[in-house]
Amino acid sequence: MTAVGAFTFVLHSHLPYVRMAGRWPHGEEWIHEAASETYIPLLNALYDLREEGVPFRLTIGLTPILVEQLADPDVKDHFDAYLEEKISLAQADVKRFETAKDLHLAYLARFYVEWYENVKRSFDERYKRDIVGAFRRLQDEGFIEIITCGATHGYLPLLSRDSSVYAQIKVGIAAYERHFGRPPRAIWLPECAYRPAYITDEGKLRPGLERFLHDLGIGLFFSETHTIEGGQPVGVAAGDAIGPYGEIKRRYVIPIQQAIPPREASTFKPYYVSDTTAGPKAEQHSGVAVIGRDNRTGMQVWSADWGYPGDYDYREFHKKDGISGLQYWRVTGARVDLGFKDYYHPDWAAYKVGEHARHFAWLVSDRLREYHDQTGNFGIVASNYDTELFGHWWFEGIAWIKQVLHQLAQNPTVELVRASDFIERHPPTEVLHIPESSWGMGGNHWTWDNHDTHWMWGPIHAAEARMEALAEKYSDPDTNTRAVLNMAARELLLLQSSDWPFLVTTGQAREYAIRRFTRHVERFEALASSLEAGRPDRQLADELYEVDKIYPDIDYRWFKAR
């Protein structure tokens, strides 16, 4: 029996820059939690499959700013301390629950002792404290494809200068090459946010994002389902109000609608993205391919109503022990108040993992077979998720991924692939015009530009213009001036992070995000002012580098006007 189609997980791993920028509840512990609950368990699952001889393949994005932090010596030391603290808390819980003669809770506390000890042992011994290197080895051996992203996850469609769009991608590529020893083949556009070419009010042509990707050697990106298939954006009901800043008012080179009607395009196949900068020529493509997220398999995990993570036997994320902070309860029921949650049973959850992995593997195979039967084509199902959903939010999610890969590797009708390999073997045969879009509410920019966040874009755009002017002014700076220019470039990238407006909009860490954003703006302005005054402040640049220690090989000239 031969394969009728291909499958890849596309996992997007990202956290904002939080190194030495606070601890619990907001700050560097975000990295520690993600590393202990997601990244190291995922590595353990993949290395276990490798040692078992399972020929798995998948696609995983590691954003440049996340990689910089995972590779940082201070973050590594703090992570070891975090794990030691977790082990101590679990050990104290064992004694507390044994004294109270609550045997099931004592059993769960011992479960956590073993869990965190295994994570620490894996980090220190199995991966030699090098999470980035562990992922690199899997790529070098052909098991995974690591894809890149914008340097600090900047929201590219809303940046006002092409120099900033270029620099976000260029810096990300340079960091990728430094950490992984090769150029990336594909990118996860931050927030899946795409923008075609358009003409500004001043009559200037701004290239579509596909032109930047092509010029920098990127051959593939990923999009939301509605970007490919049209129709109502996923997760938004007809008639939902998007808000005053969600409306896109631009004069496009290729006229398109934001909410396009349903069309024949399918997420089962890749497309070349039309070169929107070249004008409305259907035959003109950019050489850059796009693969859309498969909605059916995506919702099987994401759906709040029937997604796997909501199963009653999985661990409850939101209820935590008042002393240790560890999670000892299961979901129990759809509308069960936190005060009435039942205790967690790892063996019950493990059984459900097997059931759900088998169901998902069948679902993938069934969708590919149905598409092949209808069209005769060899299709692809790309299931795109935030990596941190697995392990951190859905505690059993990593075990589920491992079993899904094991199941599909044994299925002769499904070929496990890395995304760029699929494009090489099955290059697109059609060109597609895709609309300005994102994964956010309404499928547009509202999540990042709304009544709560609109004030942030003025300082961002002003900083972009100042950086561009400085890059033009200093063509051959001395060593001290160059160091200040490069530090200003780092601060500009950090203040452009899409995480700050996102956290404000969602309210998850509103005050923290505002504080972090304004601090990076202030740091950039201080550096820029010293340069503009002809007195570059090298001491300030060196002090800030110790705090914002990213991208040692950055070149401020990447911010020159395009």
Notes on the structure:
- 46% of the residues lie in helices and 10% in strands.
- The chain is built from 17 helices and 13 strands.
- It has helices at residues 29-51, 64-70, 73-99, 103-126, 131-140, 162-180, 209-215, 225-229, 295-302, 346-375, 397-409, 419-425, 454-473, 479-495, 499-506, 510-532, 538-547, and strands at 5-13, 58-62, 144-147, 186-187, 198-199, 205-206, 220-223, 251-252, 271-274, 285-292, 379-386, 414-416, 431-432.
- Strands 1, 2, 3, 11 and 12 form a five-stranded parallel β-sheet that branches. Strands 4-7-10-9-13 form a five-stranded mixed β-sheet.
- Helix 1 (29-51) links the parallel strand 1 (5-13) and strand 2.
- The N and C termini lie far apart (52 Å).
Short description:
46% of the residues lie in helices and 10% in strands.
Poorly predicted runs are: 235-247
How much of the sequence lies in strands comes to: 5-15%
Largest sheet, described in full? 5 strands, parallel
Taking all Cα atoms into account, the compactness measure Rg is: 24 Å
Assembly state:
single chain
How many strands in all? Answer: 13
Helix tally?
17
Instruction: Work out the helicity level.
Output: 40-55%
Structural class assignment = alpha/beta
How would the global form be characterised? Answer: globular
Mean pLDDT over the residues: 93
List the secondary-structure elements in sequence, H or E. Answer: EHEHHHHEHEEEHEHEEEHHEHEHEHHHHH
Distance between the termini: 52 Å
